[in-house]
Write a structure and sequence with these properties.
- The complex is a heterodimer of chains A (about 270) and B (about 240).
- Chain A is built from 13 helices and eight strands.
- The model of chain A has no long low-confidence stretch (mean pLDDT about 95).
- In chain A, strands 3-4-2-5-1-6-7-8 form an eight-stranded mixed beta sheet, with helices on both faces.
- Chain A is about 40% helix and about 15% strand.
- Chain B is α/β, with parallel strands linked by helices.
- Chain B folds into two domains: about 90 residues, ACT domain (Alpha-Beta Plaits), CATH 3.30.70.260; about 100 residues, 3 Solenoid (Pectate Lyase C-like).
- Chain B contains six helices and 15 strands.
- Chain B is elongated, with a radius of gyration of 21 Å.
- About 15% of the residues of chain B have low confidence.
- Classes of the chains: A alpha/beta (about 270), B alpha/beta (about 240).
- Chains A and B meet through helix 7 of A and loops of B.
Amino acid sequence: MTKTIVVTSGKGGVGKTTTSASIATGLARRGFKTVVIDFDVGLRNLDLIMGCERRVVYDLVNLVNQESSLHQTLIKDKRLENLYILPASQTRDKDALTIEGIARVMHKLKKAEFDYIICDSPAGIEKGAKMALYFADEAIVTTNPEVSSVRDSDRILGILQSESKRSKMNEDPVKEHLLITRYNPARVKDGQMLSVDDIVDLLAIPLLGIIPESPSVLESSNAGKPVILDDESEAGQAYSDAIDRLLGEAKPHRFMEVQKKGILKRIFG
Amino acid sequence: MYTFMSLKVGVADVDIIDASLADKVLQAPGFFSNTPVVVDLSPLDGDEEAADKLDPAALVACIRRHKLVPIVAATHDKTSPLAQTIELPLIESSARRISGAAKSESTPAKADGAAAETPASAEPLVTEREVEYIARKPLIIDRPVRSGQQIYARDTDLIIIGQVGAGAEVVADNNIHVYGPLRGKALCGVSGDTNTNIFCQSLEAELVSVAGIYRQLETIPEELRGKAAKVYLEDERLNIGPL
Protein backbone atom coordinates (compact mmCIF):
# COMPACT_ATOMS: atom_id res chain seq x y z
CA MET A 1 0.00 0.00 0.00
CA THR A 2 1.40 3.34 -1.05
CA LYS A 3 1.20 6.05 1.59
CA THR A 4 1.13 9.69 0.52
CA ILE A 5 2.49 12.21 3.02
CA VAL A 6 2.37 15.97 2.47
CA VAL A 7 4.88 18.23 4.21
CA THR A 8 3.13 21.56 4.62
CA SER A 9 3.02 24.65 6.84
CA GLY A 10 1.19 27.61 5.34
CA LYS A 11 4.09 29.89 6.17
CA GLY A 12 7.24 30.01 4.09
CA GLY A 13 10.79 29.45 5.25
CA VAL A 14 9.94 27.18 8.16
CA GLY A 15 11.72 24.11 6.79
CA LYS A 16 9.30 22.23 4.56
CA THR A 17 11.85 21.33 1.90
CA THR A 18 14.52 20.43 4.47
CA THR A 19 11.96 18.23 6.19
CA SER A 20 10.72 16.64 2.94
CA ALA A 21 14.28 15.77 1.96
CA SER A 22 15.13 14.28 5.35
CA ILE A 23 11.87 12.38 5.79
CA ALA A 24 12.13 10.88 2.28
CA THR A 25 15.77 9.99 2.80
CA GLY A 26 15.05 8.53 6.24
CA LEU A 27 12.26 6.31 4.92
CA ALA A 28 14.41 5.13 2.00
CA ARG A 29 17.22 4.34 4.42
CA ARG A 30 14.82 2.04 6.31
CA GLY A 31 14.27 0.15 3.07
CA PHE A 32 11.06 1.74 1.82
CA LYS A 33 10.79 2.62 -1.85
CA THR A 34 10.24 6.38 -1.63
CA VAL A 35 9.73 9.29 -3.99
CA VAL A 36 9.80 12.94 -2.98
CA ILE A 37 7.88 15.39 -5.20
CA ASP A 38 8.62 19.12 -5.36
CA PHE A 39 5.27 20.90 -5.79
CA ASP A 40 6.84 24.35 -5.69
CA VAL A 41 6.53 24.92 -9.44
CA GLY A 42 8.48 28.04 -10.41
CA LEU A 43 10.56 28.08 -7.22
CA ARG A 44 12.34 24.75 -7.44
CA ASN A 45 14.52 24.05 -4.40
CA LEU A 46 14.25 20.40 -3.48
CA ASP A 47 16.76 19.34 -6.15
CA LEU A 48 19.39 21.56 -4.48
CA ILE A 49 18.76 20.13 -1.02
CA MET A 50 18.88 16.60 -2.46
CA GLY A 51 22.02 17.44 -4.44
CA CYS A 52 20.66 16.46 -7.84
CA GLU A 53 20.23 19.88 -9.46
CA ARG A 54 22.52 19.03 -12.36
CA ARG A 55 20.58 15.92 -13.25
CA VAL A 56 17.14 17.47 -13.87
CA VAL A 57 15.99 16.78 -17.45
CA TYR A 58 12.20 16.44 -17.26
CA ASP A 59 10.04 17.74 -14.42
CA LEU A 60 6.64 17.43 -12.74
CA VAL A 61 4.90 19.69 -15.28
CA ASN A 62 6.21 17.56 -18.19
CA LEU A 63 4.91 14.48 -16.44
CA VAL A 64 1.53 16.08 -15.67
CA ASN A 65 1.22 17.13 -19.34
CA GLN A 66 2.24 13.63 -20.48
CA GLU A 67 5.28 14.97 -22.28
CA SER A 68 7.60 12.55 -20.50
CA SER A 69 7.36 9.11 -18.95
CA LEU A 70 7.68 8.36 -15.24
CA HIS A 71 10.93 6.52 -15.89
CA GLN A 72 12.39 9.50 -17.76
CA THR A 73 11.32 12.04 -15.17
CA LEU A 74 12.26 10.40 -11.87
CA ILE A 75 15.78 11.12 -10.71
CA LYS A 76 17.38 8.23 -8.87
CA ASP A 77 19.25 9.28 -5.76
CA LYS A 78 22.99 8.57 -5.88
CA ARG A 79 23.29 7.68 -2.21
CA LEU A 80 20.28 5.47 -1.62
CA GLU A 81 18.95 2.64 -3.74
CA ASN A 82 15.23 3.16 -2.98
CA LEU A 83 15.04 6.93 -3.27
CA TYR A 84 13.73 8.96 -6.20
CA ILE A 85 13.23 12.68 -6.71
CA LEU A 86 10.51 14.23 -8.87
CA PRO A 87 11.60 17.84 -9.43
CA ALA A 88 9.38 20.85 -10.03
CA SER A 89 9.55 22.94 -13.17
CA GLN A 90 11.47 26.18 -12.76
CA THR A 91 10.12 27.90 -15.87
CA ARG A 92 6.39 27.40 -15.28
CA ASP A 93 3.98 28.43 -12.54
CA LYS A 94 1.44 26.69 -10.34
CA ASP A 95 -1.35 27.03 -12.92
CA ALA A 96 0.43 24.35 -14.95
CA LEU A 97 -0.79 21.77 -12.41
CA THR A 98 -4.22 20.17 -12.54
CA ILE A 99 -5.88 17.72 -10.16
CA GLU A 100 -6.47 15.28 -13.05
CA GLY A 101 -2.82 15.53 -14.11
CA ILE A 102 -1.55 14.99 -10.54
CA ALA A 103 -4.02 12.11 -10.15
CA ARG A 104 -2.43 10.41 -13.18
CA VAL A 105 1.06 10.90 -11.72
CA MET A 106 -0.05 9.49 -8.35
CA HIS A 107 -1.58 6.50 -10.11
CA LYS A 108 1.63 5.81 -12.00
CA LEU A 109 3.67 6.03 -8.79
CA LYS A 110 1.31 3.58 -7.08
CA LYS A 111 1.63 1.20 -10.00
CA ALA A 112 5.41 1.49 -9.73
CA GLU A 113 4.97 0.12 -6.18
CA PHE A 114 6.31 3.02 -4.19
CA ASP A 115 5.83 2.62 -0.44
CA TYR A 116 5.90 6.35 0.27
CA ILE A 117 5.16 9.46 -1.77
CA ILE A 118 6.40 12.59 0.02
CA CYS A 119 4.86 15.81 -1.31
CA ASP A 120 6.87 18.95 -0.61
CA SER A 121 4.28 21.72 -0.54
CA PRO A 122 4.93 25.33 -1.53
CA ALA A 123 4.15 28.05 1.03
CA GLY A 124 0.76 29.72 1.07
CA ILE A 125 -2.76 28.37 0.83
CA GLU A 126 -3.22 28.84 -2.91
CA LYS A 127 -3.39 26.39 -5.75
CA GLY A 128 0.11 24.90 -5.38
CA ALA A 129 -0.36 24.13 -1.69
CA LYS A 130 -3.85 22.74 -2.28
CA MET A 131 -2.56 20.47 -5.07
CA ALA A 132 0.23 19.20 -2.81
CA LEU A 133 -2.15 18.24 0.00
CA TYR A 134 -5.07 16.99 -2.10
CA PHE A 135 -3.98 13.33 -2.28
CA ALA A 136 -2.44 13.12 1.21
CA ASP A 137 -3.10 10.24 3.58
CA GLU A 138 -0.97 11.88 6.25
CA ALA A 139 0.33 15.39 6.79
CA ILE A 140 3.47 16.62 8.49
CA VAL A 141 2.76 20.18 9.56
CA THR A 142 6.07 21.98 9.94
CA THR A 143 5.95 24.78 12.49
CA ASN A 144 8.51 27.20 13.93
CA PRO A 145 8.15 28.21 17.58
CA GLU A 146 6.61 31.60 16.87
CA VAL A 147 3.02 32.83 16.80
CA SER A 148 2.64 33.62 13.10
CA SER A 149 3.91 30.21 12.07
CA VAL A 150 1.53 28.53 14.53
CA ARG A 151 -1.44 30.53 13.25
CA ASP A 152 -0.61 29.61 9.64
CA SER A 153 -0.28 25.96 10.60
CA ASP A 154 -3.72 26.13 12.20
CA ARG A 155 -5.06 27.56 8.94
CA ILE A 156 -3.48 24.82 6.83
CA LEU A 157 -4.90 22.17 9.19
CA GLY A 158 -8.33 23.62 8.48
CA ILE A 159 -7.69 23.37 4.74
CA LEU A 160 -6.55 19.76 5.14
CA GLN A 161 -9.86 19.02 6.82
CA SER A 162 -11.94 20.62 4.11
CA GLU A 163 -10.04 20.44 0.83
CA SER A 164 -8.17 17.15 0.81
CA LYS A 165 -9.46 14.26 -1.27
CA ARG A 166 -10.12 12.30 1.92
CA SER A 167 -12.39 15.04 3.27
CA LYS A 168 -14.18 15.50 -0.07
CA MET A 169 -14.79 11.76 -0.44
CA ASN A 170 -15.86 11.44 3.21
CA GLU A 171 -13.08 8.98 3.93
CA ASP A 172 -11.12 8.79 7.20
CA PRO A 173 -9.52 12.19 7.82
CA VAL A 174 -5.90 12.94 6.93
CA LYS A 175 -3.64 11.85 9.81
CA GLU A 176 -1.93 14.95 11.17
CA HIS A 177 1.57 15.19 12.63
CA LEU A 178 3.21 18.22 14.18
CA LEU A 179 6.91 18.75 13.51
CA ILE A 180 8.49 21.67 15.32
CA THR A 181 11.60 22.92 13.54
CA ARG A 182 14.28 25.46 14.50
CA TYR A 183 13.61 24.84 18.18
CA ASN A 184 16.03 26.62 20.44
CA PRO A 185 15.54 25.65 24.10
CA ALA A 186 17.69 28.54 25.37
CA ARG A 187 15.50 31.09 23.57
CA VAL A 188 12.37 29.32 24.79
CA LYS A 189 13.68 29.66 28.33
CA ASP A 190 14.23 33.38 27.78
CA GLY A 191 10.67 33.72 26.57
CA GLN A 192 11.72 34.64 23.01
CA MET A 193 10.16 31.52 21.50
CA LEU A 194 7.02 29.50 22.15
CA SER A 195 7.56 26.28 24.07
CA VAL A 196 6.65 22.82 22.79
CA ASP A 197 3.75 22.73 25.26
CA ASP A 198 2.39 26.06 24.00
CA ILE A 199 2.48 24.92 20.39
CA VAL A 200 0.90 21.54 21.10
CA ASP A 201 -1.80 23.31 23.14
CA LEU A 202 -2.53 25.78 20.32
CA LEU A 203 -2.61 23.25 17.49
CA ALA A 204 -3.96 20.20 19.35
CA ILE A 205 -2.38 17.57 17.08
CA PRO A 206 0.10 14.79 17.98
CA LEU A 207 3.78 15.73 18.09
CA LEU A 208 6.00 13.87 15.61
CA GLY A 209 9.26 15.50 16.54
CA ILE A 210 11.27 18.51 17.59
CA ILE A 211 14.16 19.52 15.34
CA PRO A 212 16.60 21.72 17.22
CA GLU A 213 18.05 24.81 15.56
CA SER A 214 21.42 23.68 14.33
CA PRO A 215 24.15 25.00 12.01
CA SER A 216 24.34 21.55 10.45
CA VAL A 217 20.95 22.12 8.74
CA LEU A 218 22.33 25.00 6.67
CA GLU A 219 25.64 23.23 6.07
CA SER A 220 23.83 20.15 4.79
CA SER A 221 21.54 22.23 2.57
CA ASN A 222 24.50 23.98 1.00
CA ALA A 223 26.23 20.65 0.47
CA GLY A 224 23.14 19.15 -1.17
CA LYS A 225 22.90 16.40 1.41
CA PRO A 226 19.76 15.89 3.55
CA VAL A 227 20.60 16.61 7.20
CA ILE A 228 19.25 13.23 8.34
CA LEU A 229 22.38 11.66 6.80
CA ASP A 230 24.50 13.66 9.26
CA ASP A 231 24.26 11.20 12.14
CA GLU A 232 26.53 13.33 14.29
CA SER A 233 24.22 16.35 14.31
CA GLU A 234 21.33 16.79 16.71
CA ALA A 235 19.03 17.81 13.84
CA GLY A 236 19.91 14.61 11.96
CA GLN A 237 19.22 12.49 15.04
CA ALA A 238 15.95 14.34 15.67
CA TYR A 239 14.79 13.60 12.11
CA SER A 240 15.77 9.98 12.59
CA ASP A 241 13.63 9.84 15.75
CA ALA A 242 10.76 11.39 13.80
CA ILE A 243 11.01 8.58 11.21
CA ASP A 244 10.74 6.01 14.04
CA ARG A 245 7.59 7.73 15.32
CA LEU A 246 6.16 8.01 11.81
CA LEU A 247 6.59 4.23 11.52
CA GLY A 248 4.69 3.77 14.76
CA GLU A 249 7.45 3.45 17.33
CA ALA A 250 7.01 5.29 20.64
CA LYS A 251 10.14 7.29 21.39
CA PRO A 252 10.66 9.98 24.00
CA HIS A 253 11.25 13.47 22.61
CA ARG A 254 14.78 14.84 22.84
CA PHE A 255 16.45 18.24 22.43
CA MET A 256 13.80 20.04 24.49
CA GLU A 257 16.11 21.15 27.30
CA VAL A 258 19.01 23.58 27.33
CA GLN A 259 22.16 21.47 26.94
CA LYS A 260 24.71 22.04 29.68
CA LYS A 261 28.11 22.44 28.15
CA GLY A 262 30.74 20.13 29.59
CA ILE A 263 34.10 21.50 30.77
CA LEU A 264 35.87 20.41 27.59
CA LYS A 265 33.18 21.94 25.37
CA ARG A 266 33.38 25.15 27.30
CA ILE A 267 37.11 25.37 26.70
CA PHE A 268 37.21 24.14 23.13
CA GLY A 269 33.71 25.35 22.05
CA MET B 1 -37.70 24.40 -0.59
CA TYR B 2 -34.84 26.72 0.36
CA THR B 3 -34.73 29.57 2.80
CA PHE B 4 -33.11 32.84 1.72
CA MET B 5 -32.43 36.02 3.51
CA SER B 6 -34.41 38.93 2.14
CA LEU B 7 -33.55 42.59 2.03
CA LYS B 8 -36.64 44.77 2.18
CA VAL B 9 -36.11 48.00 0.30
CA GLY B 10 -38.31 50.61 1.94
CA VAL B 11 -36.42 53.78 1.01
CA ALA B 12 -35.25 55.13 -2.30
CA ASP B 13 -31.98 56.58 -1.01
CA VAL B 14 -29.17 54.12 -1.75
CA ASP B 15 -26.90 55.91 0.75
CA ILE B 16 -29.30 55.07 3.58
CA ILE B 17 -29.48 51.45 2.40
CA ASP B 18 -25.69 51.43 2.19
CA ALA B 19 -25.33 52.69 5.76
CA SER B 20 -27.83 50.27 7.24
CA LEU B 21 -26.30 47.37 5.34
CA ALA B 22 -22.85 48.33 6.61
CA ASP B 23 -24.22 48.33 10.14
CA LYS B 24 -25.91 44.94 9.71
CA VAL B 25 -22.94 43.27 8.06
CA LEU B 26 -20.61 44.54 10.76
CA GLN B 27 -22.53 42.51 13.34
CA ALA B 28 -21.43 39.27 11.75
CA PRO B 29 -19.09 39.86 8.82
CA GLY B 30 -18.36 36.21 8.25
CA PHE B 31 -21.97 35.23 8.41
CA PHE B 32 -23.09 37.63 5.70
CA SER B 33 -20.14 37.12 3.39
CA ASN B 34 -21.31 35.68 0.05
CA THR B 35 -24.82 35.06 1.35
CA PRO B 36 -27.51 35.03 -1.34
CA VAL B 37 -30.26 37.60 -0.75
CA VAL B 38 -33.66 38.28 -2.20
CA VAL B 39 -34.06 41.99 -2.94
CA ASP B 40 -37.63 42.63 -1.88
CA LEU B 41 -38.94 45.75 -3.61
CA SER B 42 -42.53 45.26 -2.43
CA PRO B 43 -42.41 48.04 0.22
CA LEU B 44 -41.98 50.45 -2.70
CA ASP B 45 -44.85 49.02 -4.71
CA GLY B 46 -47.26 51.78 -5.50
CA ASP B 47 -44.94 54.50 -4.27
CA GLU B 48 -44.02 55.76 -7.69
CA GLU B 49 -42.13 58.77 -6.49
CA ALA B 50 -39.75 56.67 -4.43
CA ALA B 51 -39.54 53.96 -7.06
CA ASP B 52 -38.54 56.53 -9.65
CA LYS B 53 -35.84 57.95 -7.43
CA LEU B 54 -34.27 54.56 -6.71
CA ASP B 55 -31.40 53.73 -9.04
CA PRO B 56 -31.61 49.93 -9.47
CA ALA B 57 -28.03 49.59 -10.74
CA ALA B 58 -26.69 51.53 -7.74
CA LEU B 59 -28.79 49.39 -5.39
CA VAL B 60 -27.43 46.12 -6.82
CA ALA B 61 -23.87 47.48 -6.75
CA CYS B 62 -24.33 48.59 -3.13
CA ILE B 63 -25.55 45.14 -2.08
CA ARG B 64 -22.64 43.46 -3.88
CA ARG B 65 -20.21 45.87 -2.24
CA HIS B 66 -21.23 44.44 1.13
CA LYS B 67 -20.31 40.99 -0.17
CA LEU B 68 -23.95 39.92 -0.33
CA VAL B 69 -25.10 38.21 -3.50
CA PRO B 70 -28.40 39.55 -4.87
CA ILE B 71 -30.10 36.66 -6.68
CA VAL B 72 -33.65 37.79 -7.43
CA ALA B 73 -35.87 40.82 -6.98
CA ALA B 74 -39.24 40.25 -5.37
CA THR B 75 -42.21 42.49 -6.14
CA HIS B 76 -45.97 42.45 -6.43
CA ASP B 77 -45.79 44.52 -9.56
CA LYS B 78 -43.53 43.01 -12.16
CA THR B 79 -44.49 45.61 -14.72
CA SER B 80 -43.33 48.66 -12.76
CA PRO B 81 -40.45 50.63 -14.26
CA LEU B 82 -38.28 49.74 -11.26
CA ALA B 83 -38.93 46.02 -11.67
CA GLN B 84 -38.29 46.31 -15.38
CA THR B 85 -34.95 48.08 -15.04
CA ILE B 86 -33.39 46.14 -12.17
CA GLU B 87 -31.02 43.59 -13.64
CA LEU B 88 -32.26 40.66 -11.60
CA PRO B 89 -34.80 37.93 -12.28
CA LEU B 90 -38.22 38.77 -10.83
CA ILE B 91 -40.38 36.73 -8.48
CA GLU B 92 -43.67 37.44 -6.77
CA SER B 93 -43.00 38.90 -3.34
CA SER B 94 -44.12 36.79 -0.40
CA ALA B 95 -44.58 39.87 1.80
CA ARG B 96 -48.11 41.08 2.33
CA ARG B 97 -49.20 43.92 0.08
CA ILE B 98 -49.02 47.24 1.77
CA SER B 99 -50.99 50.37 1.44
CA GLY B 100 -49.20 52.75 -0.74
CA ALA B 101 -52.42 53.36 -2.56
CA ALA B 102 -53.55 56.50 -0.80
CA LYS B 103 -50.87 58.33 -2.64
CA SER B 104 -51.15 56.62 -5.97
CA GLU B 105 -54.89 57.12 -6.09
CA SER B 106 -54.42 60.86 -6.26
CA THR B 107 -52.06 60.52 -9.20
CA PRO B 108 -53.68 59.21 -12.34
CA ALA B 109 -52.84 55.61 -13.09
CA LYS B 110 -50.36 55.22 -15.88
CA ALA B 111 -51.46 53.71 -19.15
CA ASP B 112 -49.46 50.56 -18.45
CA GLY B 113 -51.24 50.28 -15.12
CA ALA B 114 -48.09 50.28 -13.06
CA ALA B 115 -49.68 51.38 -9.82
CA ALA B 116 -53.25 50.46 -10.52
CA GLU B 117 -53.09 47.07 -8.86
CA THR B 118 -52.12 48.30 -5.45
CA PRO B 119 -54.97 47.54 -3.07
CA ALA B 120 -56.19 50.22 -0.77
CA SER B 121 -56.17 48.11 2.40
CA ALA B 122 -54.51 49.63 5.44
CA GLU B 123 -52.52 46.63 6.61
CA PRO B 124 -49.47 47.39 8.74
CA LEU B 125 -46.07 47.23 7.11
CA VAL B 126 -44.50 43.84 7.72
CA THR B 127 -40.84 44.37 8.46
CA GLU B 128 -39.99 42.10 11.36
CA ARG B 129 -39.24 38.56 10.47
CA GLU B 130 -41.72 36.26 12.12
CA VAL B 131 -39.61 33.97 14.23
CA GLU B 132 -40.95 30.55 14.82
CA TYR B 133 -39.27 28.26 17.29
CA ILE B 134 -38.98 24.70 16.20
CA ALA B 135 -36.94 22.31 18.31
CA ARG B 136 -34.03 21.44 16.08
CA LYS B 137 -31.07 19.21 16.74
CA PRO B 138 -27.97 21.17 17.68
CA LEU B 139 -25.02 21.20 15.31
CA ILE B 140 -22.21 19.24 16.97
CA ILE B 141 -18.62 19.67 15.76
CA ASP B 142 -16.30 17.12 17.36
CA ARG B 143 -12.98 18.45 16.13
CA PRO B 144 -11.10 21.72 16.61
CA VAL B 145 -12.29 24.67 14.53
CA ARG B 146 -9.17 26.02 12.79
CA SER B 147 -8.08 29.51 11.87
CA GLY B 148 -9.97 30.64 8.77
CA GLN B 149 -12.79 28.16 9.24
CA GLN B 150 -16.33 29.28 9.77
CA ILE B 151 -19.16 27.25 11.27
CA TYR B 152 -22.75 28.45 11.25
CA ALA B 153 -25.60 26.69 13.04
CA ARG B 154 -28.80 27.92 11.42
CA ASP B 155 -31.81 28.11 13.76
CA THR B 156 -30.12 25.91 16.34
CA ASP B 157 -27.41 25.54 18.99
CA LEU B 158 -23.79 25.05 18.07
CA ILE B 159 -21.76 22.66 20.20
CA ILE B 160 -18.03 22.40 19.67
CA ILE B 161 -16.04 19.64 21.28
CA GLY B 162 -12.51 20.97 20.97
CA GLN B 163 -11.00 24.38 20.61
CA VAL B 164 -11.91 27.33 18.44
CA GLY B 165 -8.58 28.65 17.12
CA ALA B 166 -7.60 32.28 16.73
CA GLY B 167 -8.94 33.50 13.40
CA ALA B 168 -11.80 30.99 13.38
CA GLU B 169 -15.46 32.04 13.54
CA VAL B 170 -18.35 30.19 15.16
CA VAL B 171 -21.81 31.57 14.53
CA ALA B 172 -25.25 30.37 15.63
CA ASP B 173 -28.83 31.56 15.65
CA ASN B 174 -29.15 30.05 19.13
CA ASN B 175 -26.56 29.27 21.85
CA ILE B 176 -22.91 28.39 21.37
CA HIS B 177 -21.15 25.88 23.63
CA VAL B 178 -17.40 25.38 23.35
CA TYR B 179 -15.86 22.47 25.26
CA GLY B 180 -12.32 23.75 24.93
CA PRO B 181 -10.57 27.10 24.66
CA LEU B 182 -12.46 29.78 22.69
CA ARG B 183 -9.76 31.83 20.95
CA GLY B 184 -11.52 32.99 17.79
CA LYS B 185 -14.77 34.86 17.33
CA ALA B 186 -18.10 33.60 18.64
CA LEU B 187 -21.41 35.18 17.62
CA CYS B 188 -24.68 33.80 18.97
CA GLY B 189 -28.23 34.92 18.31
CA VAL B 190 -27.22 36.36 14.94
CA SER B 191 -30.79 36.44 13.70
CA GLY B 192 -31.68 38.70 16.58
CA ASP B 193 -32.47 36.41 19.52
CA THR B 194 -31.30 38.29 22.61
CA ASN B 195 -31.97 35.29 24.87
CA THR B 196 -29.00 33.32 23.62
CA ASN B 197 -25.67 32.68 25.35
CA ILE B 198 -22.12 31.66 24.68
CA PHE B 199 -20.62 29.12 27.06
CA CYS B 200 -16.97 28.13 26.95
CA GLN B 201 -14.39 26.32 29.05
CA SER B 202 -11.66 28.87 28.57
CA LEU B 203 -12.49 32.39 27.43
CA GLU B 204 -9.69 33.77 25.24
CA ALA B 205 -11.92 35.03 22.42
CA GLU B 206 -11.00 37.76 19.95
CA LEU B 207 -14.63 38.82 19.95
CA VAL B 208 -17.90 37.68 21.49
CA SER B 209 -21.32 38.83 20.36
CA VAL B 210 -24.91 38.21 21.37
CA ALA B 211 -27.60 39.36 18.93
CA GLY B 212 -25.21 41.81 17.33
CA ILE B 213 -23.90 43.40 20.53
CA TYR B 214 -20.23 42.60 20.76
CA ARG B 215 -17.12 42.96 22.90
CA GLN B 216 -13.49 42.46 22.04
CA LEU B 217 -10.80 40.78 24.09
CA GLU B 218 -9.44 44.04 25.53
CA THR B 219 -12.75 44.74 27.22
CA ILE B 220 -13.06 41.27 28.72
CA PRO B 221 -12.22 41.48 32.44
CA GLU B 222 -8.72 40.16 33.17
CA GLU B 223 -9.98 37.82 35.91
CA LEU B 224 -12.26 36.00 33.46
CA ARG B 225 -9.71 35.44 30.72
CA GLY B 226 -8.76 31.81 30.37
CA LYS B 227 -11.63 30.82 32.69
CA ALA B 228 -14.89 28.99 32.10
CA ALA B 229 -17.38 31.71 31.31
CA LYS B 230 -20.76 32.57 29.88
CA VAL B 231 -21.62 35.55 27.71
CA TYR B 232 -25.17 36.89 27.81
CA LEU B 233 -27.27 40.01 27.35
CA GLU B 234 -28.85 41.87 30.24
CA ASP B 235 -30.73 45.12 29.61
CA GLU B 236 -29.11 45.36 26.17
CA ARG B 237 -25.67 45.20 27.73
CA LEU B 238 -23.27 42.40 27.00
CA ASN B 239 -22.22 40.67 30.19
CA ILE B 240 -19.55 38.10 30.84
CA GLY B 241 -19.72 36.00 33.97
CA PRO B 242 -17.98 32.98 35.44
CA LEU B 243 -19.55 29.63 34.72
